[in-house]
Amino acid sequence: MLDPAPAPVVLHRPAGPGGVVVCRLAGEIDIDDRPAVLTAFARAVDRATTAVVVDCERLAFCDSTLLNALIGLRRDTAASGLGLVLAAPTPQLHRLLELTGAASLLSTQPTLERALVRLRAERTA
Question: What is 2-124's CATH topology?
Answer without folding.
Answer: Transcription Regulator spoIIAA (3.30.750)
